[in-house]
Amino acid sequence: MPDLLLELFSEEIPARMQAKAADDLRRLVTEKLVAEGLVYEGAKAFATPRRLALTVHGIPARQPDLKTERRGPKVGAPDAAVQGFLKATGLKSLDEAKIQRDPKGDFYIGLIEKPGRDAIDVLAEILPVIVRTFPWPKSMRWGARSGKSGSLSWVRPLHAITATFGLETEEPDVVKFEVEGIATGQTTYGHRFLAPAPIQVRRFEDYEAKLLDAKVVLDPERRKDAILTDAKQLAFAQGFDLVEDQNLLDEVSGLVEWPVVLMGSFEQEFLKTPDEVIRATIRNNQKCFVVRDPKTGKLANKFILIANIEATDGGATIIGGNERVIRARLSDAKFFYETDLKTKLEDRLPKFEQIVFHEKLGTQAARIKRIERLAAEIAPLVGADVVKAKRAATLAKADLLTEVVGEFPEVQGLMGKYYALAQGEDASVAAACEEHYKPQGPADRVPTDPVSVAVAIADKIDTLVGFWAIDEKPTGSKDPYALRRAALGVIRLIAENALRLSLMKVAASALAGLSVKPVDAEKIPSDLLAFFADRLKVQLREQGARHDLVDAVFALGGQDDLLMIVRRVEALGKFLESDDGKNLLAGIKRASNILSIEEKKDKRSFDGAPDAALYSLGEERALAKAIGEVKAEASAAVAKEDFAVAMSAMAKLRPPVDAFFDKVRVNDDDAKVRENRLKLLNEIRSATRAVADFSKIQD
Fold this sequence. Notes:
Layout: E1 3-10, H1 15-35, E2 42-48, E3 51-57, E4 66-74, H2 79-89, E5 98-102, E6 105-114, H3 119-132, E7 144-145, E8 148-149, E9 158-166, E10 173-174, E11 178-179, E12 182-185, E13 187-189, E14 198-200, H4 204-213, H5 220-237, E15 241-242, H6 246-253, E16 260-265, H7 275-286, E17 289-292, E18 299-307, H8 316-340, H9 345-348, E19 356-358, E20 362-363, H10 364-382, H11 386-395, H12 403-407, H13 414-422, H14 427-435, H15 450-469, H16 483-496, H17 503-512, H18 524-542, H19 548-554, H20 562-577, H21 579-602, H22 618-639, H23 643-651, H24 654-663, H25 671-688
Parallel strand pairs: 9-12
Antiparallel strand pairs: 1-3, 1-9, 2-3, 4-6, 5-6, 7-8, 9-10, 11-12, 13-14, 15-17, 16-18, 17-18, 19-20
Helix pairs in contact: 1-3, 5-6, 7-8, 10-11, 10-15, 11-14, 11-15, 13-14, 14-15, 15-16, 15-17, 16-18, 17-18, 19-20, 20-21, 20-23, 21-24, 21-25, 22-23, 22-24, 22-25
C-alpha cells in the first residue's frame, strides 16, 4: 500500500515546541485518515529546527465504498415529504426505494451508495486544513503573497511544503494543494549554510538519506545520541567527565540540524563561585554543558558547546565568541555571589514584611513565623533539636532575596545552604535551608537530617492548611499551588524516615497559627487527612501496590499515623497474596454480603454477642471459639504494631469459616437460630476489623 511523506519547511521553530508539534502533526493526520476510512499501518513524525516531517506507511490507495440505509416518510405521506426524501437519497423515484414494515406503519427506505475516493484526493482535502488550524502554543502572521495580506498563522514563516504519496516500487505523486500561495511539491532544503541548495525528494527513505547528505540529521533522538556520545568522548579525551543534563540535551538537540561538539574554557578564578552557580550561568545563558574533574568531583574551567556548523577554522571563532559571553556572565555571577556574602541571611528578613505570600494568607514574614513555630512543635516528634529547627525555619527562605537566586531561581535553597555555612551556622541548620523544599517529586531525594525533616514537614503542612483554610483546594487537573506535590512530600518524609506523627494534631496546630479564621475550621484536619489518603493511594499505585488496601485501612477511622497505615497496608498486601489470605477474604466477603442482605431485609443490624446455648452444630462452636482466639491475638498484635503476626492470627479463621459455610445453613427456619447465626457472621466481620475493613478490598 502507498506511503505518505509530508514536510512543512519553515524558519526556526523554538526548541521547546518541536517535540509536541511533531506529535500533534502525527496525531492530527492519522486521526483524519482513520475518520475517512483509511486505516494505516504505521506513522512516525520528526522535527528539526526548520522542519516538521511525517511519514505514514501502508495507507490504502482508495477509501472503501460505503452503503447506508436512510429511513424516509411513511407510505402515503405528502408529496413534499416524498420529494425531499428522493432528493436527499439521490433516488430517481420511489420505485428504487424499499418498503419496511414497522409497528407504526410502512416506511420508505433508501439505499445510499457512496463510492470511495482515491486516498490522494482525501489527503489533498485534509492536509491543508491541518496546516491552517495547527495548534501552535504561539504563532504569527506575516508578510503578503500575490498582493494579498498573509492570513496563515504558523509558528514562524512557512516556506515550502513537500507532500508525496505512492507505492515504494513506483514514482510517487505529489499531493496537490496550496496554503497561502505555497504550493506543494517535492523540493526541500538541507543545512542553511553547509548545503543550502534545493533537494528533490520522492519518498521518506530517500528524503532522510538526502537530508543526511545535506548535513541535516532528521531524527531528534539520533541528534541527541550524537551530541551525548561526542560530548562524553571529547570530555574524556581532555581528562574530564561530562556533567550530563537531559533537559539541556533535549533543548540543544532542537537548536541544531548538524551537531558539532566543541570545547571552550574560562578563567580558574571563577571556580571560587559555587559549582551550581557556574553551571546555571553557562547552561542558562549559552546552552552549554560543564565538565568536572574526576579526581576531585569539582567543576573544571571548561565547557562543551554544540555548534550547528563545521567551521573552516575548526571552530576557533565559535569557541572564542562563546568564551567571551561566558566570561562576562560568570563575572556577573561571581559579583552577585560575593555581594550576597556581605549581608547576613537574618538581615534580609525585614524585607519579607513587604512581600505578600498570598492576599488571604498574609506576608512572607508572617508565613516564616508560622513555619518557625510549627517546626519547633514537630522537632521533638522527629528527633530534631528544637533550637536548631527554629533557627533553620527562620533562615530557610532568606536566600530568596539574594542576587544569585534572583538571577537563577533554580538554585534557591541551595544558595541558602552556602550562605548559612559561610556565616558560621550549624551544619544541620544550613542543610535544612536547602532540604526543606524536598522532596519536590517522586524521583527527588528525601531529607534524613531531623532538622531538615522538621522544617520540610512544617513548610508543607503550613502550605496545605493555609490553602485549605481559604478554600483553594486542587480541582480536577488544576493544582496551581502544587498542593498534591506537598502532600506526597509529607507522605514520603514520614514513610521513608519511619516517623510517628499525628497529621490531625499537626494540621490543627498549623490552623491555629493562621490569621484567617475559616468557616468549619474543625473539619479542615479531617478533610486534609482524606486528601492524604488519596495521595497515598496514588503513590502506592505508582509503586505497584494495591490502592484499595488503603481504603480498607482508612475505613477503620481515627487513624492519622501514616507510617502505621503504610506498614499495615504492606502487611495486608502480603497476606492477601497467600492462599489463606485469598480464601479468608472470600469467606469474609460472603459473610458481609449475607449480613447486608439480611440487615436490609429486617431493617436492623445483628450486633451483640451470639448465644452459645443456641449452637446446635460443631461448626458453629468451632467458629465461635476461633473468632474469640483470633480477635484476642490480632488485637494484641495490632497494639504492639506487629501486623505480620496479626495477619498470621487472621489466617487461623480460614478453616472454621470454610467449614461453617460448607455445613451450616444461616437462614434457619427457627428465627432465634437464624438471628444467632447472623450475629456469629457479624463476629467474623468484627474480628477482622482489628486489622482492616475487608469489605473495602476488591476481589
